[in-house]
Amino acid sequence: MGTTISPPQTLVILLLLLLLSEPYFQINGHDFEIEEATIEDVQRAFCDNKLTSRELVDYYLDRIESLNPVLRSVIEINPDAVAEAERADSERRAADNVSRSSLHGIPVLLKDSIATKDKLNTTAGSYALLGASVPRDAGVVERLRNAGAVILGKASMSEWYHFRSPGIPNGWCARSGQGLNPYVKSGDPCGSSSGSAISVAANMAMVSIGTETDGSLICPGDHNSVVALKPTVGLTSRAGVIPLSPRQDTVGPICRTVSEAAHVLDTIVGYDPRDSAATMAAAKYIPSGGYAQFLNKNGLEGKRLGVVRNPFFTVSSRTPVFEAHLRTLREKGATILDNLEIGNIDTVLNPVLCGEAMVLMAEFKVSLNEYLKELITSPVRSLSDVIIFNQNNPVLEKLTEYDQETFIAAEKTDGLGEYEKAILEKLENICLNGFEKLMKEHELDAIVTPGSRACPVFAIGGYPAITVPAGYENDGMPFGICFGGLKGSEPKLIEISYAFEKATKIRRPPSLGGS
């Protein structure tokens, strides 16, 4: 199995953080600025023989060894990562003029719910699945391997997607402990793809793959000053990913720039026969020529953006920054329609009132049981087994502090009956008469909101969204700006967010000395 990363018992490690501030990495006599390097930068360095994939992987493994004992954002490193990097280097040397994927030789960190058929575990952060054997790579992992990417390891996550109990803090899981925000140690890293976001923000990985059911990509992206892209449900395969809701689950990239997110998206989208219904329905949205073609610095020209302030906007220290960003969007050619309202928004934002919570519990039990039964070997084969495991291992699973009340409630459900189906119909009508009506009536290309509070709007309808770094509070805590659109609007969202990113250049790496 993979090498498990354990928290240290000494503060000496904090001194090592200062050693990692040097941005240049000496390679073959050349200075290459690797810390915030993009995929494009690295591929150019590969071509110019200034960098090898092996050297890149070694750099990130050193970063993980030094930083992870404090940040706790990586659960395991792949013991075969170096071998995979050396294979990529050999392929490049053997045929220099061959056109390769932009991810060839690039190390990628995966959320711990995304299955890999190798020496790594896939546990959703829980000891209950430690040692389980998956039948095959997840669909997105298969695509990454085919592209020549290097699987660097597994990122920590809010255990079981923060679904075991509402009492579990964001970024916490039994196997790695509490993940920390790299900008402000006391700041919320958000979840559940917390480890993926922390690791990329702290330059412990170049790119990562996370998942979202409701906020689990956008929120950690927002809180950790990175770009997170939530694709239209079905655009990326969920096969081999520990499920929560087949109706809402989606797999997407977390990166430091919009361009990297577009390149990763190009690699992982597409039809998968093991997730056939969803990926077939979404395949029509994939543009000919891919997503990187929409990295247009003039992408805001002619766009119609709707600003939804209520209830996402509150007067705070962020207010002048957000208003300045709206001016930038206008200056770059966008038409801003301000103070728009989404119908039934109060209902949408209340998971109990709209019924989302009840349906998610029923979907989780059914889909998790199906996933667990397909494992080759596993300590648990059902949600009921997981609950019993947790009860029998209170020290391992920290049940003296955190219980599993949501799991117990989910176990009492009995699939999608008439009651649940009525809720699903209600949710569909809420989407049609709320978000979709707003978008169509005003002919919007996207809506714009500060922060990540709009995530439920995109979640219940399976809509795409992207968050881009937008600023920092007085204490250094990051915040983002979120653009969301109708299904299949990823090309527009990439154009809008890339142009915004290029115009503002907000993101800065963490000092790793936050409070």
Automatic annotation (TrEMBL):
What domain of life does the native source organism fall in?
Eukaryota
Pfam families reported in the protein's UniProt record: Amidase (PF01425)
Keywords associated with the record = Signal
Query: Has the keyword Signal been applied to this entry?
Result: yes
Q: Has UniProt tagged this entry with the keyword Calcium?
A: no
Question: Where is the signal peptide, in residue numbers?
Answer: 1-29
Supply the InterPro entries for this chain: Amidase_dom, AS_sf
**UniProt xrefs under Gene3D superfamilies:** Amidase signature (AS) domain
Residues covered by the Amidase domain? 55-452
Protein name as it appears in the record: Amidase domain-containing protein
